[in-house]
Design a protein that fits this description.
43% of the residues lie in helices and 14% in strands. By secondary structure, it is α/β, with parallel strands linked by helices. The strands form three sheets. Strands 3-2-1-4-5-6 form a six-stranded parallel β-sheet, with helices on both faces. α9 packs parallel to α12. The structure holds uridine-5'-diphosphate-glucuronic acid. Uridine-5'-diphosphate-glucuronic acid binds next to α9. The site of uridine-5'-diphosphate-glucuronic acid has 21 residues, from α9.
């Protein structure tokens, strides 16, 4: 099929590359001309495992191309995906101005029937607004359908999630675009569920909020574990074996972050409020998440007492593993909190150091993870990178002025760490 994707962020670029990989012809549109040039030249603006290879391969076969012309993209495809940012506003609501602008641009370029698919995360009832806008601005007065097709990929695993989706959600207001949507997704062999547009939009916010709730739930359990000497890892394993609960997203941590969960929670609370419902449950999810960071910082200050003039090593700056994304990263927030207390920081991340430089001032960036602890009073793990598990612990212990390790991601076994001579403090264990 011929497909156009507007917006080459995480969702748009990965979707475009994966659609091309399964055989579709894909045009990716972005209004950032510099980004389009970078992509045309084989450059990738984000780190995402497997993405670079996929983009290069499909550009070379001619199935994937980039342009800054929305009109060109609309003209050449029958199905147009919108994957532009929907950033938060100061009051927690969603800024839909990019969506509205793209809807107008698509409308202006339409000369025949098109299926316009919203992939961006949007508040319920946005599809109806997009349809209204297109109708208003389409001078050619042609038929069209608006579809909601939310995306469920995780950064760091985006290609994998897109190629093997658990489900594909297609929200429609008539049956006409259903066949085209099924054809788009046929090569992925995933169950397709067809709903009305409002339900599809709600599935996305309800899913992300539920996953955030799951993390806050286990983080709350971790507080009880800390107070009783129980082990949150074992509690999660025991809970997770119940198929109704499931083990995934029950990893206690210093809190969740990123460009999705915090934003989507605020947005969903705001949407509910506008509909007359006080979503107190989700406010509590937010509160537990904020408190979790406070508790972790307190663990550090309780042990090190005064942080002024102390040197602390921090491993991990990205908001999670396998990405260079530092937006709303708990690791960056932790660094800021430690700096505020007067600590000097030596930091490392396998992929996110360049992006972190814009956010972190007056820290020492260290290229080798095994050198971070050099001369430090303590080491902190802030992101769940797999490679941190391969840290040279003997070297780290010797490098620290005192062998104290705070693990905000529970990467090591407490008994083993104690055996190695560390004062080891993790979450709920
Ligand atoms: C999330 C959802 O998982 C995706 O399904 C969704 O498509 C995406 O948002 C989106 O809306 O675009 P993402 O934010 O990329 O994906 O990453 P996650 O793997 O969900 O992690 C989010 C945060 O939760 C990270 O800070 C991570 O460290 C933390 N987390 C995750 C935990 O603290 N514990 C866990 O058990 C799992």
């Amino acid at each position: 099929m011929k497909l156009t994707i507007i917006g080459t962020g995480y969702v748009g670029l990965v979707t475009g590359a994966c659609f091309a990989e399964v055989g579709h012809h894909v045009i990716c549109v972005d209004n950032d001309a510099a980004k389009v040039e970078l992509l045309k030249g084989g450059g990738i603006p984000i780190y995402e495992p497997g993405l670079e290879e996929l983009v290069k391969k499909n550009v070379s076969t001619g199935r994937l191309s980039f342009t800054s012309s929305t009109a060109g993209g609309v003209e050449q495809s029958d199905v147009i995906f919108i994957a532009v940012p929907t950033p938060p506003l100061a009051d927690g609501a969603v800024d839909l101005s990019f969506i509205e602008k793209v809807a107008r641009e698509i409308a202006g370029a339409m000369t025949g029937y098109k299926v316009i698919v919203d992939k961006s995360t949007v508040p319920v009832r946005t599809g109806a607004k997009v349809a209204e806008t297109i109708k208003r601005y389409c001078k050619a007065r042609v038929d069209f359908d608006v579809v909601s097709n939310p995306e469920f990929l995780r950064e760091g695993f985006a290609v994998e999630d897109l190629m093997k989706p658990d489900r594909v959600v297609v929200g429609v207001r008539s049956q006409r675009p259903v066949q085209a949507m099924k054809e788009v997704y046929a090569p992925f062999n995933a169950p397709v569920i067809v709903t009305d547009i409002n339900s599809a939009e709600l599935i996305k916010h309800a899913s992300n909020s539920f996953l955030a709730l799951k993390i806050s739930y286990i983080n709350a359990i971790s507080v009880v574990c800390d107070a009783t000497g129980a082990n949150v890892h074992e509690v999660a394993a025991g809970m997770g074996m119940d198929a109704r609960i499931g083990r995934r997203f029950l990893d206690a941590s210093l809190g969740f972050g990123g460009s999705c969960f915090p934003k989507d929670l605020s947005a969903f609370i705001k949407i509910a409020e506008q509909l007359g419902y006080d979503f107190g449950l989700l406010k509590e999810v937010q509160r537990i998440n904020t408190d979790q960071m406070d508790r972790f910082v307190k663990k550090i200050t309780d042990t090190l007492w005064v942080l002024k003039d102390k040197k602390i090593g921090v491993l991990g700056l990205a908001f999670k593993q396998n990405t260079d994304d530092v937006r709303m990263s708990p690791a960056i927030e932790l660094c800021a909190r430690l700096q505020k207390e007067g600590a000097a920081l030596r930091v490392h991340d396998p992929k996110a150091m360049d992006k972190a430089r814009a956010l972190l001032k007056d820290v020492t960036f260290v290229e080798d993870m095994n050198e971070v602890a050099e001369g430090c009073d303590a080491l902190v793990i802030a992101t769940e990178w797999e490679e941190f598990k391969k840290l040279d612990l003997e070297r780290v212990r010797k490098a620290l002025s005192h062998p104290i390790l705070f693990d905000g991601r529970n990467l090591f076994d407490p008994a083993e760490m104690e055996h190695l001579g560390f004062i080891y403090k993790s979450i709920g264990r």
